[in-house]
Each structure stands twice: as C-alpha cells, then as structure tokens.
Known about the structure:
It holds the Pfam family Exo_endo_phos. Residues 23-261 form the Endonuclease/exonuclease/phosphatase domain. It comes from Streptomonospora alba. By secondary structure, this protein is α+β, with helices and mostly antiparallel strands. It has one domain (7-269): 4-Layer Sandwich (Deoxyribonuclease I, Chain A), CATH 3.60.10. Helices cover 24% and strands 27% of the residues. It is built from seven helices and twelve strands. It has helices at 31-39, 60-69, 137-154, 183-189, 199-206, 212-220, 243-246, and strands spanning 7-14, 45-49, 72-77, 85-89, 95-100, 113-117, 125-131, 157-163, 209-211, 237-242, 249-255, 263-269.
Amino acid sequence: MTPPSKQIRIASQNLKHGGIQTGDGRPDDRWPTIAADLRTVQPDIVCLQECHGWSDHLRAQVYRAEQDLGMRLAGLVRGRAVGGNAVFYRPEAMAQCGWADAYAQETYTGLGVALFDVAGWSQRLAVASTHLTTTSAEAAIDEAMRVADRITRYSAYGVMIGDINTHPVRDGGRAPDAATAKPLDRAARWDSDDQPDRRVAHRLHRAGLVDAADHLAQKSGDTRLYAPTGHGGIRVDQALVTAPLTAKLTTYERVETASDHTGIVIGIDL
Length: 270
C-alpha cells in the first residue's frame, strides 16, 4: 500500500508528561490539542515520547489516541523510566509487518522498532521513536548506538526520530550560550570548555545516520531548518535516517503544539 501523496510523512512529538498531566501528576489534558496539531501535517506515521500514563487504565489513552489521530498503534514500549515511546501509523497508507521490543530495557525510556512494508521497496522501513537520556553525553552515546544498531539490523531503510536530547552535528550557528543553561543541562550538553558537546551526533554520523534537517539545509541553503525545538534553545528533536534514505528525503518541517517541544515532520519520497 502507498499513501496517495506518494510520500511517507513521519512526525515526532515529545508530549511533556503524556500530554495528559503536569510534572507532579495533576490532570492537564493537552492531548486533544496536540492531536489536532499533528493531524494538520497529515502524517502516515507518528512517533511519540514521554507517554506518561498511557499504559494505565487498560491503555485507555492509547485507544483514545487511535481515535483522535485516525491511526493504529504499532507499539508502545517502556524502559526503566515512567512513560515510554510509541509509534502509530495510518493503516490505509502503511502495512505494519513487525514490532521489535526485545531490547526495550537497553535504554532508559524504552527501545522499540516498528517495521513496515512499503510497496516498491526491496526492504522494510524500520522506525524507532527515540528519547535519549539527559544525564551525560557518555550515557546518551551508549543509548544512541543501541538504537542505531537495532534500526540498521532490521533494514537498510531506518529512521531514528524523537527527542535526541543533545546538540546536533550542525546547528547553523544557533547554539545558545552555555551560561544561559541550567547547571545540570550545562554539565550534560556542553563540554568542559563550555562548547556544545556534539559527541552523540558525531558518533551517529560515523554509524552512517544522517540528520535530515542538516542534510536538507545543506542542500537548500535554508538555515531556518536549524531552528531549536526544545529547552535551552537547542534542536534536541531530530530525525536521523540511514544513508540509503537520504536520496528519498523531500521535506523537514516543524509543527507547534501544546507541548514544551516543537514537533518535527519528515517526508520520504516513494
């Protein structure tokens, strides 16, 4: 099956405490607004992070999300932390052929990979909704490489998308001053010389993954693609694709939602 638009659109959104509560657990139902905002970009696949409370009450929020998005859950995974990461898809556009969560506990928030059959492609599409740890670059490198290992093992066509929580390989000169960061963020995201710590991005680059925003910015000269997406003025939300998908990348977009992160969307030509 192929989407009518002849491209696959993959969106990602960090929900901020599930989109249904505050940081201290009080009800704060922002989900309907988030869902409506995501629908405006007409995604075929939606990757969500910080799915706090989505496994509670017989997964009532999951079924609500399926109705609100007009999608089906490919998989919801939890690691050692509260919350987790989810992948949804539009069944009339995509055909799911697998959900791999055997390595769910290898990252703090959970590692799961959705696999899809795509008409005309020789291999499956592997998509991981990703939320890396914030504690240190060293810990984030370990988690990032575990995600990269999974998506590249399952297919040559892999997408690692979500809250990468670190500086990207390039930001178009938009890196904020370390002095403006909270002490914990400064220790985790800047090196001892107060320069942006890009070790996670460089390691993923060495592993063969390409930053979609940077790739399209370099190609088009549009530096607006480097705009920050999360706390501290950093483009923490990123879409990284395997090298064979770079020629198929058509778009990278941002979507403002009722969360503390800007959503991102990539288009992949069929």
